[in-house]
């Protein structure tokens, strides 16, 4: 039997004459439990938010995006198109022309981001599940249709599918012109709003998808494109295809997977998670100070027992281990309760949504949470380190009561 652990457990479970020590130990355990549960919940919320962002961006953004490293656009020649399509693993290559434009519908107007895409964009099936009104299409015979965000629809009071009032799109083409005719400063085309998508507020309030040919004529891009959006073949590793495209296109093009398209955001989110973990660890450390006082008072209360142990042959190492293990029992007992409580609250949130986001959103109604084993591991490691630091000084104090005068 482990003697230090046996004695530490007896001290923790026994009824002491001075029950104030029991109260301090109970308070210490409760504080550790609350701080641990709060840390698990907050880290799980960060995990849920990260997964939510990934799901949103995977819906709106392509698996691989190709852009020019210099300039806003690049020439997309048949030779370049054939070479990209021949890369092993490439399934669909969607041509994109994207720029700001001024749109008007009846008496309302606003500035939006026009995203012209080739017809095979619909074959990627990225926004099929996000359509909330109308029919997902770009053409119906000679008639062109736009796919608009829900925020754009609400701002302009657009009725999707109606062919009475088209959406008028204006694009400034020559700000240096000295012509007295204002119509020479911009180009204008009209298109019908065919359907509405709802993904996330930033996208819903700004984006309008239009056929590539419509955008090419409006913006006068001819054979230029702002980007290419690539879908890889089923069962193909995205990063492998990305490396093949990078080797083919060279330094003139930037080839990014979905993660790299929002690299700064993911880094910021992870950095915030690290700082939250550090902050809560400090709070946990401050809350664990009660363990220091409980162990210090326990050492004074048990000075006779300590002297007896020394008389029976105990050494300083044995006494220190007893009090360090006493601190471990208090803190890990609280940590276990806190982890179970935190996991229980996260489970309830995942399954029943006990806390809502408190606002209307097209994404989800309740706060997202996701528990990860690594968070429990890091929390336990931080708690063990804090417990050792907190318990070491009272353990040193306990070794002072080795003389016979304390018997």
Automatic annotation (TrEMBL):
Keywords: Cell membrane, Membrane, Transmembrane, Transmembrane helix. Residues 278-401 form the ABC3 transporter permease C-terminal domain. GO terms for biological process: lipoprotein localization to outer membrane. It is found in: Cell membrane. The keyword Membrane applies. Coiled coil: none annotated. The keyword Transmembrane helix applies. One of its GO terms (cellular component) is plasma membrane protein complex. Residues 25-247 form the MacB-like periplasmic core domain. The chain crosses the membrane at residues 20-46, 274-301, 322-350, 373-392. InterPro entries: ABC3_permease_C, Lipoprotein-release_system, MacB_PCD. Its main location: membrane. It is a multi-pass membrane protein. It comes from the Bacteria. Belongs to the ABC-4 integral membrane protein family. LolC/E subfamily. This is FtsX-like permease family protein. It comes from Fulvivirga sedimenti.
